[in-house]
């Protein structure tokens, strides 16, 4: 890919190059002389920090600490290779800027970091006609991602027993590709469904009485929360899942700090149609006001369309 990108850069005139995510960031070397934007999305070091805190075995912690140290320095270095850097939340912006202060020499010229929030396709994710299943709780997302796996396991082991003690008919659906064996084993209980890959998340969100996001740690903005809110599905989530969101608890979503609180709030939504309707409508209004792709697209364009000279510290 690097060779092909270099060939394209030599053979055609480009105004900008946008390179997305840490895995591809090294490709900036292939586009010397062209202003480049790094779509970091999240600060990966911040994610590694949170993962390290939850790594139990000392050998795994040692390896994770080495990865974290290397990633911190690499992310700081990348700020000197690009003309602009884009992230999805203020927390990630502050984390990258902190890495620059910590690891770069005073003579360095790190790129400005701009927040462009994630958007939702409001036509695609929209409230659907039809009844909801009053016992269906859904958790959507890429289930090969460790934070999602941790969230699904925690919800099934710590929250669901408390819910079932009050309402044994509640069903938990884990919807998303790549669930590991630990997640698939949850389906041994007939009240838990682990789907794996599905063609379309919307039917599950449309049918569910409540969407949960029980992830214990996170960076950036959780698209799964935005998508559920856009479809008018009430959301109950952890504090970590609200990072980067301006939605207030009780207005579009409920936020839980403990397993007991999580269970109580899920049961509240299941048992109170008026509350569920209020949360669903408020969630839709929130994403319409704050996460429409139109304004996010315009913010990105303003960030990247400023005049830069060709060449410079970004390539």
Notes on the protein architecture:
The model is unreliable at 309-315 (pLDDT under 50). It is built from 11 helices and 10 strands. It has 2 domains: 2-119 and 295-304, no CATH class; 133-291, Rossmann fold. The longest helix has 21 residues, at 58-78. The protein has 315 residues and is α/β, with parallel strands linked by helices. The chain is globular and about 60 Å long.
Task: Give a nutshell description of this structure.
This protein is of the alpha/beta class and 315 residues long. The chain has two domains: 2-119 and 295-304, no CATH class; 133-291, 3-Layer(aba) Sandwich (Rossmann fold), CATH 3.40.50.2000.
- Assign an overall shape: globular
Structural class, from helix and strand content? Answer: alpha/beta
Average the pLDDT over all residues and give the rounded result.
Answer: 91
The largest pleated sheet is described as: 6 strands, parallel
Helix content: 40-55%
Query: CATH topology of the largest domain, what is it called?
Result: Rossmann fold
* CATH architecture field of the largest domain: 3-Layer(aba) Sandwich
Strand order of the largest sheet: 7-6-5-8-9-10
Distance from first to last alpha carbon: 18 Å
Number of helices: 11
The counted number of beta strands is 10
Give the percentage of residues in beta strands: 15-25%
- Please identify which CATH superfamily of the largest domain we are dealing with: Glycogen Phosphorylase B
**How many separate structural domains?**
2
What's the CATH class of the largest domain, please?
Answer: Alpha Beta
